[in-house]
Amino acid sequence: AQSVTQLDSQVPVFEEAPVELRCNYSSSVSVYLFWYVQYPNQGLQLLLKYLSGSTLVKGINGFEAEFNKSQTSFHLRKPSVHISDTAEYFCAVSDRSRGAQKLVFGQGTRLTINP
Amino acid sequence: DAMVIQNPRYQVTQFGKPVTLSCSQTLNHNVMYWYQQKSSQAPKLLFHYYDKDFNNEADTPDNFQSRRPNTSFCFLDIRSPGLGDAAMYLCATSRAGGRTGELFFGEGSRLTVL
């Protein structure tokens, strides 16, 4: 069975500061990895994904993440955050199925940007 | 431009009164999912349709049912809502056989049970 652990439930950061949101996963098979963002009372929007290839993945809104197989981690980073980045961030994993992609989510990290 | 549309966005029902949430998609994806997200928690998969094949998660209560009359539409029926069913319900789609692994989510339907 797959599982995802997001190590921080809340991360407060000042505007224009860098941020890292941590994610570790466990799985007995090769996986796809994702970061989704959720703004209040909205659905989930894909930030970025790792399927294969380069371990450094760039996404939307200036975010990037690095896949580390030996540490089973997929941490999300942004060098300079903006007030509009305030949201809930979910790390997710799915197996490499060509059928349905059954995502398993972490508990989420609430990112709060302070002016 | 909305690709996965959920209605209604907000639903208030009374304890025990059946409710139906709908989801439609313009992506022509063959897989549709329903997730339940309780306050401050991660989304939890209830079930999914792969084409017309219904796939229930083992721990999804019998109170939750789903229908998919055609490729574009999928419904979530809650037969007798309890207070514990208050949550955001998220519909998502994906294309099986594709290589992106990505799910496309709707805006969600927030259910309040009085």
Q: What level of helicity do the residues of chain B show?
A: under 10%
Main beta-sheet annotation of chain B: 7 strands, mixed
Proportion of residues in extended strands of chain A: over 45%
Gap between N and C termini of chain A: 41 Å
Would you kindly provide a written description of the structure presented here, covering whatever features stand out?
The complex is a heterodimer of chains A (115) and B (114). Chain A is mostly beta strands and 115 residues long. Chain A has no helices and twelve strands. In chain A, strands 2, 5, 6, 10, 11 and 12 form a six-stranded mixed sheet that branches. A four-stranded antiparallel sheet of chain A has the order 3-9-8-7, with no helix packed on it. Chain A has a two-stranded antiparallel sheet with strand order 1-4. The termini of chain A are far apart. The model of chain A has no long low-confidence stretch (mean pLDDT 92). Chain B has 114 residues and is an all-beta fold. In chain B, 0% of the residues lie in helices and 51% in strands. In chain B, the strands form two sheets. In chain B, strands 2, 4, 5, 6, 9, 10 and 11 form a seven-stranded mixed sheet that branches. A four-stranded antiparallel sheet of chain B has the order 1-3-8-7, with no helix packed on it. In chain B, a hairpin with a 5-residue loop joins strand 7 and strand 8 (73-78). At the A-B interface, strand 5 and strand 6 of A face strand 5, strand 9 and strand 10 of B.
Question: What is the strand and helix layout of this fold?
Answer:
The complex is a heterodimer of chains A (115) and B (114).
Chain A: E1 3-6, E2 10-14, E3 19-21, E4 23-26, E5 31-38, E6 44-50, E7 56-58, E8 64-68, E9 73-78, E10 87-95, E11 104-105, E12 109-114
Parallel strand pairs in A: 2-12
Antiparallel strand pairs in A: 1-4, 3-9, 5-6, 5-10, 7-8, 8-9, 10-11, 10-12
Chain B: E1 4-7, E2 10-13, E3 19-25, E4 31-37, E5 44-50, E6 53-56, E7 64-67, E8 73-78, E9 87-94, E10 104-105, E11 109-113
